[in-house]
């Protein structure tokens, strides 16, 4: 665990989210129990190098990389905890586990995040994706920049892939276009289910001149939705 995590842990000792062992938010045993996701195209699940999206499936995302799969109870516990009082510690933990994925990306990339809808951020006081993106930038040395903002509100519950995309079509706008043109961008998020939200975020980045957009997430859904 990094120094900041150690200090937080000292002030209020952690209990492992999974086994209840005292000391760390996630003990080394439980951490190692998290499955790894095979590098593949996120749409058709065909194995591919460095998470590349295959030509037939290519939309706006160049590649997607995930540390683990969403269909584990421990992962759901972590995602739930990310929305609690210990969000910062969980974000550090997730960023540490995601850091090796960045070695598979363009080393000149800028790290950004897909903002959560503003109403939810306001009620919680922070954006969990932003927390992870910042820690990931710090541990990888890649520059972090806020590039996207949310436009209005969208509802995602119960909607299928296509209608989610339609609802989200104008849900993001770029806020620093000068930093996007000709650059590779990494969008960080905590979870990816259909990929529709990240595709929409990638679309505005590509339209603003990004050369490629890679999504790096903590957990991805294993099955086609
Ligand atoms: Zn444990
Ligand atoms: Zn594919």
Could you describe the 3D structure shown?
The protein has helices at residues 3-11, 28-32, 73-81, 87-98, 118-124, 128-140, 161-167, 196-207, and strands at 14-15, 22-23, 63-69, 110-113, 148-150, 172-174, 184-192, 212-220. It contains eight helices and eight strands; from the N terminus they run αββαβααβααβαββαβ. Helix content is 33%, strand content 17%. The chain is an alpha/beta fold. It has two domains: 1-33, no CATH class; 36-220, Rossmann fold (3-Layer(aba) Sandwich), CATH 3.40.50. The protein is globular. Residues 41, 43-44, 46, 54, 56-57 line the site of one zinc ion. One zinc ion binds next to α2.
Features:
2 domains; Rossmann fold; two-stranded antiparallel ribbon; globular; alpha/beta; binds zinc ion; 225 residues; 4-stranded parallel beta sheet; 33% helix; 8 strands
């Amino acid at each position: 665990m990094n120094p900041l995590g150690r200090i937080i842990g000292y002030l209020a000792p952690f209990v492992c989210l999974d086994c209840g062992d005292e000391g760390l938010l996630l003990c080394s045993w439980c951490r190692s129990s998290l499955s790894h996701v095979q590098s593949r195209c996120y749409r058709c699940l065909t194995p591919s190098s460095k998470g590349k999206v295959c030509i037939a499936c290519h939309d706006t995302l160049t590649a997607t990389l995930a540390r683990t799969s969403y269909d584990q109870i421990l992962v759901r516990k972590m995602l739930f905890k990310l929305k609690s009082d210990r969000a910062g510690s969980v974000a550090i933990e997730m960023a540490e586990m995601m850091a090796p994925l960045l070695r598979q990306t363009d080393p000149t990339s800028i790290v950004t995040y897909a903002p959560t809808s503003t109403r939810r951020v306001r009620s919680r006081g922070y954006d969990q994706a932003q927390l992870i993106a910042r820690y990931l930038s710090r541990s990888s040395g890649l520059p972090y920049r806020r590039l996207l903002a949310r436009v209005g509100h969208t509802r995602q519950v119960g909607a299928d892939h296509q209608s989610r995309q339609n609802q989200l079509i104008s849900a993001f706008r770029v806020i620093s276009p000068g930093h996007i043109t000709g650059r590779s961008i990494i969008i960080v998020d905590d979870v990816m289910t259909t990929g529709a939200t990240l595709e929409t975020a990638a679309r505005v980045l590509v339209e603003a001149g990004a050369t490629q957009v890679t999504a790096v997430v903590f957990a991805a859904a294993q099955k086609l939705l």
